Amino acid sequence: MKPVRIGMVGCGGIANAHLEGYRSLAGRGCDHFVLSAVCDVDAARASAFASQIAQFQATPPQVFTDLDALLAARVVDGVDVCTTHADHHPTAIRCLEAGVHVMVEKPMGVTVRAARRMQEVAARTGHILSIAENSRRGLGQRAMAWLFNQDRRLGAPRLFAIDYFAGPPLPLTPPAEETPAAQLNWRLDKLQAGGGWTYDGGVHLMDSLLVYFGPIDTVYAEHRTLTPRETLLTDGRRVTGHGEDTSLATFRFASGLIGRWSFSFALPGVDFMRVGFYCDQGYVLDETPGGWTHTFGGGFIDSQARIRGADGKEISSRDLELEYVLSLSGEERERLFPHGIQRSMAIECHEFVDCIRCQRQPEVDAAAGLAGLAVSAALYESAEAGVAVRIQDVLDGAVDAYQRPIDAHWGLLP
Ligand SMILES: NC(=O)c1ccc[n+]([C@@H]2O[C@H](COP(=O)([O-])OP(=O)(O)OC[C@H]3O[C@@H](n4cnc5c(N)ncnc54)[C@H](O)[C@@H]3O)[C@@H](O)[C@H]2O)c1
Questions:
Q1: Which of 155, 166, 182, 252 makes a 20 to 30 Å CA pair with 243?
Q2: What is the CA radius of gyration of the chain?
Q3: Which residue has the higher pLDDT, 291 or 305?
């Protein structure tokens, strides 16, 4: 069987982590794929990326600055899309329509409607649409999902509480002059990013919560921008204060479970993180600095969570991870951690290649990607409306006041 030809579209920050994933797969003898093309609107970035690939692959990839040219060259079977949120749907849809399979970074689309369009086109064309939601694939998250859903030593979940507070150190010093490059930040533009941290990083948590505890029914959120920043965008627009730096939210699950999260990056002198999952026979408590990333981010930072069950014995997250791995059959271990890899990004890259080779569906398909995104979007809708919001109403488009201007801008309204 010929190697699957993968093109990488968007060669910025996270694409480097995907590249490391492909590099580690190649290094472990996985020869099922070749990186045949790279594409970025920034020619220098695309070329630099191709040079990195040439270090571990015999044939260097072709370099493009335009997606249509890449598709016309017919040099890819699948593309790995690592562009900005608002670019996910146009790029993914053009690829799917051209007969090319797609893996796209999270959040799946800039709004629910954008993601729905992607889902419809994937269903109509029959091509693979995988969402690069890496968080749930990390060893820590897999072990936690196993703890709540299979192992069940903690009994029934009762409540979760998640706090993540950070701010500038005290005493405060005047902010340093921002460089022009630092100001060109698409993440601070609602039209390009869709939202702030609740949308960008928060969607990882939403996905993990859905995996741990099942469907979420209703959310209520309060959002604030306590320290508004002015940003100059690449198209010359100046925007101020988009993107909440503070969020308080409650969640009610279909199972009846309740929970809340709160984060703020605008609390001077404060640096504090705590994640607690409380059940009727025990708890998981994680206060690891940087454990945010472990628990509902990229899954890169080892956590030192404590798990205590009905026997009163406390074990570490490392102990739990070992128990979980020992519970897996050889086949499950190879499927979830192929070639012994534990880095979540390498695992999702491997899965994408395997889905194309074997014509199978990915774990995080369009429905799963949309489910996580809809919870993040619902938090914005709730904060905008000042009332609790049902996830189903956001999925159906019945509640859309926050997202409507974004949809209008990108021509997504019916
Ligand atoms: N899974 C994770 O943990 C994680 C972490 C960070 C970012 N992300 C996601 O990755 C995506 C990219 O984020 P980033 O931090 O790498 O952003 P970035 O700005 O560093 O990179 C985006 C790149 O896309 C390029 N680009 C934009 N539009 C393009 C187009 N139409 N065609 C080709 N190239 C185009 C830009 O020039 C830039 O090089 C986002 O969806 C983000 O949410 C995921």
A1: 252
A2: 21
A3: 305
